[in-house]
Amino acid sequence: METKPLDVLAILKLYEIRGEALMREARAWFFTQFAPQSGKEIVRLMLSGQRQSAFYRMVVSHWDVAASFVNNGGIDERLFLGGNTEHIVVYAKLQPFLAELREAIGEPDYLSNLEQLVLKVPDIEKKLEGRRRLLERWAQAGE
Q1: Is the pTM above the cut of 0.85?
Q2: I need a surface site. Which of 19, 54, 59, 96 has the fewest CB within 10 A?
Q3: Residue 40's domain spans which residues?
Q4: Cα 70 to Cα 80: distance, rounded to the nearest angstrom
Q5: Tens digit of each residue's pLDDT, the chain (143 residues)
Q6: Cα-to-chain-centroid distance, residue 85
């Protein structure tokens, strides 16, 4: 697919959204404080109505929607993957709980756009391990 100026604008818009104050707060929480131990724990959080529930949904839906744009040809995949890695970190945090989470909420395709895009990344298993180590360091630094 030929890169078009609209692809670039869409990626810049996604990046701009990440910089909005509430999204920055949500992202900081997700990466440094959110430490789920199970899919059921994530479901409880989602249903809690707490501020962190909104943070979780903001971060996760942002990247699932972005992945949907890429997966469906709305944004050039090569261009997107060349300039973004945060979606890999989001997936790395959720992957261990994804099957349980999908079963608990009765949605077998929950976050499937994100998963599909992330799994296209070359050498992804090694990258996911590295991102999980990074998340652990961030969590320890935030304690």
Answers
A1: yes
A2: 19
A3: 5-142
A4: 7
A5: 455 788 889 999 999 999 999 999 999 999 989 999 999 999 999 999 899 999 999 999 999 999 999 999 999 999 999 888 999 999 999 999 999 999 999 999 999 999 999 999 999 999 999 999 988 888 777 66
A6: 9
